[in-house]
Predict the 3D structure of the following.
Amino acid sequence: MATLLVITTFLPLLGGLVLFLAPGLDMKSARWIALATVLATLAFSLVLVANFQPGVVTPQFAYGPAEGPYGLRWMVRPDIRFATGLDGLSIWLYVLTTMLMVPTIFASWESITDRPAMHYAFLLAEETALLGVFASLDVVLFYTFFEFSLIPMFFLIGLWGGPERRQASLTFFLYTLAGSLLTLIGAISLVVIHYQYSATHVLTFSIPELTRGLAALDWSGWQETADGWRSPQVLIFLLLFAGFSIKVPMFPFHTWLPLAHVEAPTAGSILLAGVLLKLGGYGLLRFNLGMTPLGAKFVMPLIATLAIISIIYGALVSLAQTDIKRLVAFSSVSHMGFVVLGMFALNATGMDGAVIQMVNHGVTTGALFACVGVIYERYHTREMAEISGLWDRLPLLAFFLILTSLGSAAVPGLNGFVGEFPILAGMFQTNQKYAILGATGMILGAYYLFWMLQCVIFGPLREPHGQGHGHDQGAEAASIHGPVRPVGWHEISGLGLLMALVVLIGVYPGPIFERLRPSVKIIADRVAPAEVAPEQTAGRTPPRTVANLAP
Amino acid sequence: MSGLIHSAWLIPFFPLLGALVAAAGGRWLKELSHIPVILGIGAAFVVALGLLTPAGPETTTVVYDWLNVGRLHVPVEVRIDGLTTMMLAMVTLVSMLVAIFAAGYMAGDPGYARFFACIGLFVFSMTGLVLSNNYVLTYLFWEGVGTCSYLLIGFWHAKPSAADAAKKAFLVNRVGDCGFAIACFLIWKYSLNHDLSYTVALSKANLDQMPQGVLLAIALLIFWGATAKSAQVPLYVWLPDAMEGPTPVSALIHAATMVTAGVYLVARSAPLISYAPGVLVVVAATGCLTALLSASIALTQNDLKRVLAYSTISQLGYMFMGLGAGIGEVAQVAVVAAMFHLFTHAFFKALLFLGSGSVMHATGGVIDMRRFRGLRHRLPITHWTFAIGALALSGIPPLAGFFSKDDILAALKSASHAAGSRSWEAAYATIYWVAVLTAFMTAFYTGRAYFLTFWGPEKLPSPDDPEAQEEDQAHLSHSDPGHGAASGPGHGGHDVHLGHESPPIMTIPLILLAVGAIVVGLIFSPMTTGWFDHHLEKTFGFERLGHFTHGHAHDWSIPIVGTLAGVLGLVLSGFMYANPSPIPARLAHRLRPLYQASYNKFWVDEFYVYTVINPLRGLARFFYLLDDLLVHNLVKATAWVPRLFGQELLAPLQNGLLQYYAAVTALGVAGLLWILLLMK
């Protein structure tokens, strides 16, 4: 099974390589090769899910014994390993990626005619990068994939994007790179701390071992001598947070997002919002909450406040948009605010909800971007003022867009609710004020989505000039068979898959939570009772101050 | 019978199945799409009837585990007690009749299958709501009902007004739902074992251990949620607009589903709310204000459906007055009275709405009462059934409305003696008299609508009516002519034969509902058989509600006062409106400010636009402006820093002079050596 995980992770890259080596390949064969690769990856990942043991805490599908060390040795000294595996936190994000690739490929199906082989090659390379991040069990490997994910996306935006694509791709690249460098410093300092102060003095880059080892350290001395903002866990927390919060993105680090989205091709947007943002959320959970729980506890009010601002601000700015794609882009800020809010509820309820919400957001926002792509392909505009009443022209699109919006607005019985409700409940348990403020996001979220539906789907049919035939008298019959292409099979299958997920996750989330729960529980336990369990860790290592770290 | 209890999930399942069949097979079923849905609701009705006898306060059964997150555990579990089974039987029966009516009414509509799929889904949500045994599951269906109403109000999607009304309904309901969600969080946080099921949350042990402040907050928040769903002040504004949907949808929303949900939830939570008596006064006062406000708006509206819509709000206000009267030992009687009014109201309000649909069928979709008159000869069945509905709504004995209204008045009167504190007793006494006044107004506007529609010289709408022109003007500005036909029934062929009675598929449901409006009061009233209150006593937690320990004599002044108010209202309206007379116009002129206020619905919608919507929009634009500045400057600056670094600092160093490179190299080596020496 461990080998299957590696194969699944690198299969897309292999497909991408094939396409890359044959850049002159025509559109038809290129897209079929890409689709075949993506479907095979999806099938493999589903095999992994089927074999995933629900009650197990340790990473699964990893080389090596259950307690580590995992993976194949890559460098002898320092002990950096090629270690891959999945646990409850990563398995669903892993599968989300393989699933979202299907509508991603279908979004490019007709619209990409320029250098198609290259386009699909980059998409597939991006998939491997994303899968790699979720499957990594080693800090260096994680970071490699984390940064590698920027490169294909950079080219996807820069080569197949809109008119301002160059600026957008550069901004996206530099902004996120700058943040992740700070994250790297944070991660390395954790490795060093673990090396210096753990009882065994092991220099390990393994994420599970590091998490365990750091939790076993006695931080009380540090917390006392350097209270507040200068305590090591808080400082490292902030370093880690720098990169991840840009990725999420959280207010006020969200500003790269709308630009990148508006300029990116539909496929790029789906992956960007659907999965790339999740790298930030995943990192927060894995590193910030997993490795610096004391820091997380201390900074929690600040982060929760930022999350609430993200929720409300993102929703309000969405409401002011006239461009549908921008509206969806800003809605991501709002929805990802919920994710962060749930994580910083610092209890299992909120964190469970946050992980599911990441999956949900990937599904619904992916679907929203795919729908926007369907509209853009036909009308070459995303201005809501220019189109309305598309229900009459594209009834299937109306169905998809309404169902997705309902899911995204967290209507219970659909997927969004399964995430949002536990997030708010969890936060309510920790801090009622934050939860009540966050709950206003439910109203505002529904507001911009239903306003968008009213503009685009409802109302009398109106199309931009040149497409369809206006609405002159007598042209009615002709326009129905006009040049506007009905929703095609590839769009139906891509969106249909997502719709099935919207309903399935909403109605029967049990199996997901069941596999997620054990992994979240350890993190939650580490954050929540950190102050009540000193007797477990007391006296293991002598407390030292942060100043001693310097040499 | 126990087998049937475990099959209670079939009640929501059948309508859902019908909806799915209609949705998936609509393409092939076409004009037969109503069959699976009507059969589904019918089957649900049969099961619901079967559950009436085995229902008991402790009967619950778990279907499957839905949410199990951290400490939040929500199974799909159903409760089959008195309250639930009563609601189920009523909801499925009325919905079935409405659906049958709709099969005739919606004939020829291009969205026929979609319509019935949504109806099935609506009934699914509503039955699920009353069946569920925990707050979060109730919340699921609570929002589900809201979603279905969104889809159905916006059914004629090309009509901008319908799209607007649908969005408004959903959003206003969301504002209420948000409060309900917070109530759920509170219950979850403070309940024993974090258990949200009614079995635990409403148990005595649990309520006793909750802090008083929390109970108060929960009770207020639940009521806040109910004010949206059941259209009370301040969140009633969505309901009058909701008539943009097809008329059967109005009948469904106003009678059987949706608006009854809020009343149901408050009744369900009565054991909890009784711990916070202050909230009961708030409930009663809100109901009272709503009833009075909406009744006074209904007095002057020209749109028949709008009159009925405001009357629904007013009657819901009545129900909340009843619920709010449940203080001290009145509690049980009051809750039963409110639920009984909900029960009888469902029959006559569905009847009145479907009657107005039948009128629209005859007038080609026109519902403005200024454009038709004297239809009683042309539409005999509609006329007689509508008259029965009007009498029932006015509370004339022995029709259904009389009994339930009398029960609520009696509860209010008892509360004014039993509330405990002097000021509360005075409050209940005031509410009682306002309720009597409202009963008079109700009879008056109901009579007005009835006489204006069915009496006087016969007149059918024609395109030359001045009101028609007004409407067209408004329509042309943002509606396309191609879809105008879809904005009402009577499209296509119907226009040819205006002014005819509806086909039997529509009149038979009217007759059945009329029979219901006549008899359900007599059959079930506490005054006669007492079946209704005996059944409701089988509800979980209701036995703990206060009830009269010693025999309670019925105060005969109450039915007399109530009936007098109703008769007076009807007689007065008959005097003013049965034949064209100059009195109403003169009166409107004399009381111009009051008339204007009522005609313009007290400008509540405008008030919300200026105080909530516009500031929110403004804030959104302001934030966007702010963000735009940030995007284009902050981000640019970020991207510009490395470039600056390169251009200003690094680029000059790469000057291509070999000597310069050599000098730098030498300097570097010297520096390194110096450091090495120092470190020795």
Summary: Chain A is about 70% helix and 0% strand.
